[in-house]
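quick one
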Amino acid sequence: MSDLSPLATPAAQRPRPGTGPLIPGLEGTASSSAQDTAVLGAADGDATLTGMQQIGGATLEAVNISAWFGTRKVLERVSLHMPRGVVTALIGPSGCGKSTFLRILNRMHETVPGAQLGGQVMLDGHDIYTPGTRVTQTRSRIGMVFQKPNPFPAMSIAENVLAGLHLTGVRMSRPHRAEVLERSLLRAGLWNEVKDRLAQPGSALSGGQQQRLCIARSLAVNPDVLLMDEPCSALDPGSTARIEQTIGDIKNEVTVVIVTHNMQQAARVSQQCAFFLAEQGAPGGIVEAGNTETIFGSPADPRTADYVHGRFG
Ligand SMILES: Nc1ncnc2c1ncn2[C@@H]1O[C@H](COP(=O)(O)OP(=O)(O)OP(=O)(O)O)[C@@H](O)[C@H]1O
Ligand SMILES: [Mg+2]
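structure w/ adenosine-5'-triphosphate:
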């Protein structure tokens, strides 16, 4: 991939676990036009927990991402800093490019015939689009959960969870497999519901359970980042609450980036928010990004206020 534009942001800095305030750099509002850069916490290192606990995950930084389908440009120079330990919510009206942006973050956009992109995606300072970087390796570090739960129908619950590991060619002893299986299902908040029926087909679970199964499958490969594209939009309120709890539980181990149309959900689960908009046929971009409280409470741009208060979109 060629870099079509000059860099507006420095490359992501190496994380410094154990230093810095709770959510450094999120105190202020990063207001920008689509051409500008939304960088949160870039200068101060990444978020850490109070006390001694270190956080996992990786910092993801999108730098001047543009995207095309054929000749149609759908994203214009989008930059966003997504620090470890922080849940980032991507919000905005339908068609503004949220899913396209998310898919670029784990190299899925390039699977669409005729699709092109420019810019950089830095994972802890390394561009995932550097020639020679293996796509499978990138995807094992940056997992994705989709709107519609997609367990492999012919596989059991256990096989579904371990499927990603098999695909990446990881060989494990039987006890290790059992350990990974239990740990992944525990992290996804599904273990207690399925521990007695691990050999049953994944497709026999409820929609909410299937979505948690897909989260467990993603977590089994121990990713640094989990991308979620409207993971609860097909779920009932109870299942939605369960997934939101799972996000809260894993957010210090895995960097989460979630697309949602549900403003309450964005407010509940995220610490930073990026508002995407594509105006009058123009490519999509970030109008404003910043601390979630600021985006919902006192956004800098009137379009953000209109959107988060349900006046359009
Ligand atoms: N495979 C594709 N081929 C051509 N155009 C596409 C393709 N996928 C998306 N687009 C176009 O790219 C633009 C951005 O789409 P995208 O799916 O990223 O939006 P979105 O913000 O995720 O919308 P939604 O909230 O409805 O999911 C839209 O105009 C859409 O029509
Ligand atoms: Mg979408």
